[in-house]
Amino acid sequence: MTLTIEKIRTTNPIILNVANMVTPQHVADAINFIGGSPIMFTDPREAGDLTGISNALVLNLGSTNPEAFKSVISSGREANKKDIPVVVDPVAIGASKIRDTNFKLLSESVKIAAIRGNISEIAHIADVAWASKGIDAGQDSGDKIAIAKTAAIKTGAFIIISGEQDIVTDGHSVFIIQNGNPQFATNVGAGDMLDGIIGVALATEFNLESCAFGTALLSVAGEIAAQEYPNQPYSFFNAVFDTLAQLDDTTFQKYAKIIQE
């Protein structure tokens, strides 16, 4: 992999975000601490101006009100005009008709570079049955790598399945990230933070390897934070942010477990 934390911080890419109403501060902090520069927006009238100064766009579909979705579509189209990567989080797709409709409209209107979700969300996109619906992935049988590949081929986007092991694929090559900590699952917003960090990585260097690198950054930070707070999820979460801010390439390489299938 040619992407490095040093390169991210030297480049300092601007990441425009249509964030879930629950987590904008977490997302902005994660982007900032790893070396990007976040912009959060909700007004679709700003889409052209703000996309024009940005290096990647991250779209969280957790807010389904019409004005939020106007911002999603308008900024996505502007990002395509500028040819900057669009990262999408299809929050709880499959849980309601409106979420399915919004994702369908977005995918028909905007070229998506990367989609990050849990196994339930990605299985829904791949048209594969899975047990759980919502933001939390359930336990079910099935080949997660095959599901990720199917979703990638269907959408033409990089697919990231986050979980105990993260899977990153373009439908052909596959990276498995074997870092992380279970306390991420108890903190709302960890996935949204990952969306932003993936946006930072792809804005700095656009390829599948960078997508895997960005995915591993948060997992490694969690693994390091858990050494100090193994059973204190709130303190752990704060330590994740501290670790992201302090993380360097030497430390990252020491901990990173990125396996190419």
UniProtKB/TrEMBL annotation:
Tell me the domain of life. Bacteria
- List the pathway annotation: Cofactor biosynthesis; thiamine diphosphate biosynthesis; 4-methyl-5-(2-phosphoethyl)-thiazole from 5-(2-hydroxyethyl)-4-methylthiazole: step 1/1
Which InterPro entries does the entry mention? Hyethyz_kinase, Ribokinase-like
Q: Does the keyword ATP-binding apply?
A: yes
Q: Which Pfam families match?
A: HK (PF02110)
Enumerate the UniProt keywords alphabetically.
ATP-binding, Kinase, Magnesium, Metal-binding, Nucleotide-binding, Thiamine biosynthesis, Transferase
Q: What is this protein called?
A: Hydroxyethylthiazole kinase
**Source organism (scientific name):** Leuconostoc fallax
This protein's gene is called thiM
